[in-house]
Structures are given as structure tokens and as C-alpha cells.
Amino acid sequence: MLKLDIPIEIFDEAVAQARAEAPIEACGILAGIDGTVRKLYKMTNIDKSSIHCMMDPAEQFQVVKDIRSAGLKMLAIYHSHPATPARLSAEDIRLALTPDVAYVIVSLQNADKPEVKGFLIEDGNATEVPVKVLQRSIGRGRCR
Ligand SMILES: [Zn+2]
Known about the structure:
It contains 3 helices and 8 strands, in the order βαββαβαββββ. With 144 residues, the protein is of the alpha/beta class. A hairpin with a 7-residue loop joins β5 (102-107) and β6.
């Protein structure tokens, strides 16, 4: 995966979830096709931690099934950093399970301007994946 495109509606949903759950980290799964996100799944942080995110395995199993039956792929696992930058923590890298999905961080450190970054993690090494938030394009400038 070389890039991740997130429609603004989905980005807004992740930010709203992160704000609602702060100071606990919010987490979830992004599914889509060819690096473009189509669907967001909010997950429960079963550790209720403000420094890491642990997804409920049963919930995750259901989501993986749903993604498959929708003909999509799991593109990324996201979590929020309620008070720290959009950078991976040592814990994030340590807990990363798979090099096949991107790890996306939504940072609320700057409350007015949430930041998002994506990374691939393999053997303890992280490389950044460019994340683009896609603005609404349909009808812009015509319907107003
Ligand atoms: Zn983190």
C-alpha cells in the first residue's frame, strides 16, 4: 500500500469519535479498495487507556467478516492520540501485529486542527504512508 485516501466524511467521523472518547484513546478500522477508504468501523478500546488502544477480539472478528462480505479490504487500523502528536509511540510499534495494514493516528493535540498520519510497521520499523483527506467535490460551486 503506497497511499491512503480518506473521504472527509469518514475523517470527520473519526475525529468526532476521538473527541467523544478523549481522554481515552479511540480506535477503529478503515476498510476500502485500492487505498481509498469506503467504510469506518468504530471499535471499543477494551483497555480504556489514554496511552494505547486494544480492540475487542470478538468485535474485530465481526468487522473482518463484514469487510469481506462487502467485498472490501482492511486498509488501516486507526487510533487517536488525545494529547500527543500524530506520531507512533514505542508502544504502538511494539503492539503492531501486521505489516499489511496501515496504522493511522488521529491527533487532537491541536484541538482546532486535528492531524492524521499513516504508517506501515514491519519488524519494528515504521515508514510513513501518505494520507490524503479527500474534500467533497461533487456539486461544489454549482449548488450554492
Ligand atoms: Zn498511539
